[in-house]
Specification:
250 residues, alpha/beta, TIM Barrel, Non-ribosomal Peptide Synthetase Peptidyl Carrier Protein, Chain A, 2 domains, five-stranded parallel β-sheet, 12 helices, 5 strands, globular
């Protein structure tokens, strides 16, 4: 963990965030991610080592607990604050829930209302619209909100929430041109990072969200998820732009 923090420092980030929230079996069942909720002393020890090894602010994201019988987020929050983290994000589900069921933000409120807590507390889970973001911020008193799955294929959710907070009005949805350009840029970066074959394959799951709401988009989406050639994929995206360029989306 210390070595990783030093590597990350080379990118000069604003903060170093430790993710104790990942619930997938290959992570959590190897005592990483949300698996550390089963061993809070070890979580505290690892976090303290990182805090002491870096001049960057260290923040943490975690979940309520391993399952409904072991919800320990109030204790975890206090102990992590005590060893020097600067902020805490809480996904309001247990590890056992994965991403199913409704997130229980009442536990986030309990942490926020704890008189011992002085660091910022951010909420995460089920926020997928500007209206819900404002409702949850006001109802549970959090200092901020973290957006996860709602941003996959829809990065405009952040500007829409900020606009709604500032004006009380909903923004117009992104244009076809914005959606196509985002998909093109995402595909390009995916290939640059993963290589052509893997970059193309890993991009496939994102097209549905980028073009959600497009009438009769299924034939184009089918071509996008079956094609391996980047040049052909870019040409399909050009076709979508040409066909749907004047479409008003909701």
């Amino acid at each position: 963990m210390i070595q990783a923090a030093h590597i990350v420092e080379n990118a000069n980030p604003d903060v170093i965030d430790i993710n104790y929230g990942c619930p997938v079996a290959k992570v959590a069942c190897r005592m990483a991610g949300a698996g550390l909720l089963q061993d809070v002393p070890k979580m505290v020890e690892l976090t303290a080592a990182v805090v002491k090894s870096t001049s960057k602010p260290v923040t943490v994201k975690t979940r309520l607990g391993w399952d409904d019988n072991t919800i320990n987020i109030v204790e975890v929050a206090e102990r992590l604050q005590d060893i020097g983290i600067q902020a805490l994000t809480i996904h309001a589900r247990t590890r056992k829930q994965m991403y199913k069921g409704e997130a229980d933000w009442s536990w986030i409120a309990k942490v926020k209302e704890n008189p011992r807590m002085t660091i910022p507390i951010f909420g995460n889970g089920d926020v997928d619209s500007p209206e819900k973001a404002l409702e949850y911020r006001n109802r549970y008193g959090v200092d901020g909100i973290m957006i996860g799955r709602a941003a996959i294929g829809y990065p405009w959710v952040f500007r829409e929430i900020k606009h709604y907070f500032a004006t009380g009005e909903l923004m117009a949805p992104p244009t076809t041109e914005e959606r196509v350009e985002a998909a093109r840029q995402h595909l390009r970066h995916s290939i640059e990072w993963k290589g052509e074959k893997l970059g193309v394959v890993e991009m496939r799951r994102h097209y549905t969200n980028y073009f959600k709401g497009f009438h009769s988009i299924k034939p184009y989406r089918s071509r996008l998820v079956e094609e391996y050639s980047p040049s052909v994929l870019y040409s399909i995206l050009d076709e979508i732009m040409e066909v749907y360029g004047e479409l008003e989306l909701t």
